[in-house]
Fold:
Amino acid sequence: MSVDSAAPALIGTLDEIQFDNRFTAALPADPERDNFRRQVAGACYSRVAPTATPAPRLLAHSAEMMERLGFETGLLEDPQFAAVFGGSVVLDGMDPHAHCYGGHQFGNWAGQLGDGRAIALGEMVDALGQHQTLQLKGAGPTPYSRTADGLAVLRSSVREFLCSEAMAHLGVPTTRALSLVGTGDMVMRDMLYDGNPAPEPGAVVCRVAPSFVRFGNFQIFASRGEIETLRTLADFVIDADFAHLAAERAPDRYMQFFDEVVRTTADMVCEWLRVGFVHGVMNTDNMSILGLTIDYGPYGWLDDYDPDWTPNTTDAAHRRYRFGTQPAIAQWNLMQLANALYPLVGEAEPLQATLDGYVPYFEQKWSAMMAAKLGLPGLQAEVDRELATGVLEVLRLVETDMTVFWRRLATVDTSDGVEPADRIAPLADAYYRPAEVTDEHRAATSEFVERYAARLRELGIADPARAETMNRVNPKYVLRNYLAQLAIHSATEGRPEAIGELLDVMRRPYDEQPDRESYAALRPDWARTRVGCSQLSCSS
Structure:
């Protein structure tokens, strides 16, 4: 991704923000300026104004993104801040627009999709000299809204805002969030698509990323045979965000580009598995070309370790996007991107060869990740590989909290001469139903832990050093679904500061925070089946 040498000075007023709209300047626009639902041909975007709202109010913001964008904190006191980042005011230099793209949804080609409730305000150069796009989610209809209203409700917006920032603090590649603005509107939503719509408070999230281009941006033009538009888009993306590939305009730059997307996508999914994150809607239109986690809809974190779990009620029957299938789905999505790039490459073989490299690359990354989680230097020996698979089998023996288990494993005494029962005692804190843990379960757990301890002694790895290594990659605090739901409830009841309080915990997910232990506790029983905690739809 390109970084400019000269970063701008700190921005103290809204009218000082300088917009550098490369996307709209370089790519073909929809000539129709009226905002009505339609098929858009031969264009990468449609210009559209966000919808003004009656009473925009700033509910939460990211201090980190304020700093990254070079915004002085005093901007938050300006009443216009909420108006601008809630969609009611368009600043000079902004060029609001919605992307045109297609995609495969749940494995089926859906044709034109596009930004149905997202409107990019424009691009600016941040404090580090990098281009960033500011995009509003929930700011009203666009030509791509189909039958929807383009709005968003408070609960989904809180989830998007919090997760964007929590993932960044976990070290997972992600789009970011600058602000959360309540609109003062009531929005009608049928949360679970069960015929029971109800009015809910509206809100808008300002998302930030170097680019919001997705696999589907390429797919739509390939599917329509609009090859020159496809080429123009690919050249722009490479020039803007893969400048190291564009320097010489190499004839194989499309292959180099695809190879990098394959690797960054694998990197991203491996990080999801590390922290127990489930995206929930891995459609190709929700796959970032930069390998960023994008579009936080019905996502969730594993509480008890269950590779078959999905948070998405729409996917409940087939579980296509469950936790354990995410690496394979990413590969399938990359195959669809390869098909879209084929007209530019002209040969299937190099695309297939690059795609074939996904599995060994992912396995290499997964091995390194699992070694770090176990506090091992690597998985070079067979015994190490057996430990990596064995620990996941132990996690499935009984209902075991993934996050708590890994932190407790770091506290296990691996020195020689420890009684097996004493060695596994710390792991009991991770069990949701301790009374259901049988002697057989304890024996299987003990057998694994004894092998693990023996291997660590063989390698000469002392427990303090191991714990430090493990606790750098195994978070203590994650954005558990019920925690987000509690923050949503508080905000709905008029206490939006609960959002910032939860975000403050998530700023240090790997640290011990003695006064915040309750945020690291097992999921409470009331959250096991509660809507918003275990059941989410695409409107959540």
User: Anything to note?
Assistant: The radius of gyration is 24 Å. The chain is about 40% helix and 10% strand. Residues 253-275 form the longest helix (23 residues).
